[in-house]
Amino acid sequence: MRTAALLLLALFAALPRSFAEEDVFAPANRFAWCIVPFDQAKRTPEQRAAMLEKLDIPGLAYDWRDEHIPSFDAEIAACKAHGISFTAWWFPGSLDDTAKIILATLQKNGVKTQLWVMGGGAPTTSPEDQKNRVAAEVARLKPIAEAASAIGCRVGLYNHGGWFGEPDNQIAIIDLLKAQGVTNVGIVYSQHHGHAHVAGFAALLQRMKPHLYALNLNGMFPNGDRSGKKITPVAQGPLDADLLRIIRASGWRGPIGLLNHTDEDAEARLSDNQDGLNWLVEQIDGKVSLPKPVPRSWKQ
User: Fold this and answer.
1) Domain membership of residue 124 as a residue range
2) Helix (H) or strand (E) holding 278
3) pLDDT on residue 5
4) Rounded to whole angstroms, what are the CA distances from 241 to 208, 245, 278, 286, 298?
5) What is the per-residue pLDDT across 120-153, written as a single tens digit (0 to 9) for each?
6) What residues of the chain score a pLDDT lower than 70?
7) How many domains does the chain have?
8) Residue 211 counted as domain residue
9) If we measure between CA atoms, which residue out of 261, 284, 259, 263 comes closest to residue 272?
10) d(CA 135, CA 34)
11) φ/ψ (deg, to 5) at 107
12) CATH (domain of 157)
């Protein structure tokens, strides 16, 4: 028996990486993002959850607008019925009335998730200005983090541009929060908001890695945000394979987001991203595969 077990272990160790351990890009590690207000089909909660189940995308980062507030409970119920988990929930920048509704809804339904918060601001102009800005953001975010912690949630700082969207500034905020005893705050990084980071992405990812809660993929072109290619399907960009290699090699294993964030049909764009990511993984694994998939929702 012991010899047979050792043989099995040896065979397992010899399997390709994607079989020997769960890969960061594995289907079970994916979630959908920006598919609620961004969806040509304007799906209902039930239709959205059914679509994700059909596409084999097991998670949802839930973005919303005021019109969706009355259907928060229905969204949770539909996702539970279809086996979809909430990777994250878009959250206001302060504990306003809507924030309190979200917290109460999550607590009532037993949902423990990431609350994604954004900010902005022009670049700071001096070390003192930087120190004051970090302290001001800590003061703003600390009550949100404490309210999230009370119901078993975490807070993700979202890189939506401006001073706040720079990951190094987010790390400074997180460090000061930790110094004040707040430990449930991290980073959410979206590639479509990170075109300026491409050249130094490997080093940036290492700095973010201890704090990174989720990473949203995108088709990446050089200067894509300035050439009409800010948001494109995964695998269509010439930089995509190298960026995926960097992510895998980093050792980070958090959830991977696939987004719509366009006026296209959410199912079409998510399908393009699924197909593109599957194809790219085969490329970086060195496998022979079919030609690069032709997207349904985008033309170059």
Assistant:
1) 30-284
2) helix 266-284
3) 31
4) 20, 6, 11, 12, 19
5) 999 999 999 999 999 999 999 999 999 999 999 9
6) 1-21
7) 1
8) yes
9) 259
10) 30
11) -65, -45
12) 3.20.20.150
